[in-house]
């Protein structure tokens, strides 16, 4: 401890360094960056015939190792400590005759202009730039100016650093403004226990003549796992890229020592584009009793299934890890914009990186298994990419689910982990006279388009619950007679289509603000309009207000009004519906156009407990009878609101009504998906 300076300013004091090296003696002192780790980078930029200047050499062995390995012999080392210069001269005088040690201040060097091809700095800039005081920055400017002066055009300034943000920013801004090419290398770790948790970087500044009036900058970063540099557009982006790698190193260090109390998430990006390629979640299971073979496993989530509850939620991943029986499970989600060469290719690509996230206590040379569902990476085929001023970028994709079923999905890319709409695809059927494919014939391509949309199947649990809400409508018959339904929010159109197809006397009006969604639903999800199905492209708020105003003269009453509309504002803790749709004045307009015995069905997705309670209180003010139905494993809660409290029914009555309605809906030639029942949707219904 007595070797540490009392103040950061002492790092620039010759007296401090004299005392430091006298007390330390002959033992070499390496700030960070052992020679074996630095060697690959040095080999790229130091040639055997180069004249090399090492500034602030201290008693590091770096120059000696470069000399002894034949990397370079014409090396001049300078330092402001007389004590260390004398030590180093004695150490190398007889064995390294071409290398010299000079007592000299790097802020005022005696060398002529353009004297060196390489200036090497190992920790000296970090030691000098301890703060951002004016005096400190002036010294750094003087240091950079001297380095620039003694370097030839085409020469390289190599700075080994821990890359604190203010240090990197200062170096990058100074030399890029001088017209130099700036490249930052992350030094690959040797795998040995390191003195510093943070990674070591080498800034490579290549001197070019400054072109008057040119503002062009060449800024690059080379991550440790690749040789090819990645271009970045600004000093801020370069500093941010380095910071990301520092955070990753801290994370790896932390989780290699202790189990994770909370799930850790991170993205691994594509080397070429910089876009996310893999999303990893580290899930620890304290309940799993450790043995030699169950410490660690990697689980590859099949493409297109990353949004499922088991893979897309914390609780689901926790359950997956526990059932897999491993102390730490690393789940890996694949991104739709990327191409993957099967399970073997993914394993080869990830093997080195995932071991950095291994748990404490993993036995040496332990084989880590790669797991998946069905042993493959799944199938995802993007059918359509689009963009809308209202919805942003979106994709329509076909994915293979659990088993042989295929599904078509609409995903808004601003919230890529949420499936906006989903429909099951029918298996293609042979045309009349067409022979069925023989078993020994070539199988269809995984990306071969499946058949048409299966309109009998509701993929979304909340849509099933919303349909079941129609059981709350009165009447003596199992099915309501003429039924007027208003749906706000089209999406892929599966909810209004189901109501239209199964309630044969229903007249369905749909309000959709985004014309692009009507095109998507029509082109990709089998949606169509007729005399019983009409879409109005309009803002739902404006359309409802218009109907409420007209209802004073021309009654426009609906049996059921359904809100399934998402919010584009991700800063609010309620993603469905937008807050304006649950304000009291607007809800009163909804009530105005709803029949007295009608039902208002609302899909509520709200993570903010306070906001949710406020919404429920407002709904109760307008609709005295309020039922709720939670969707298992999802945040969604379906609310059924009625204006007449006398319409309250017991669970037994609702169950009987649901079974009767479903029996009437199940007609020959109109298939019903047997995986769900209306009565089941109403079992968990409770009155608020």
TrEMBL record:
InterPro entries (alphabetical): Lys/N-term_MeTrsfase_sf, Methyltranfer_dom, SAM-dependent_MTases_sf
Entries under SUPFAM superfamilies matching the protein: S-adenosyl-L-methionine-dependent methyltransferases
An annotated GO BP: methylation
Domain Methyltransferase span(s) in chain numbering: 50-172
Keyword vocabulary terms for this entry: Methyltransferase, Multifunctional enzyme, Transferase
Keyword Transferase carried by entry: yes
Compositional bias annotation for Basic residues: 434-444
GO MF annotations in UniProt: methyltransferase activity
Region Disordered, annotated ranges: 424-450
Family to which the UniProt record says this protein belongs: Belongs to the methyltransferase superfamily.
Designated name of the protein: eEF1A lysine and N-terminal methyltransferase
Organism, scientific name: Catharus fuscescens
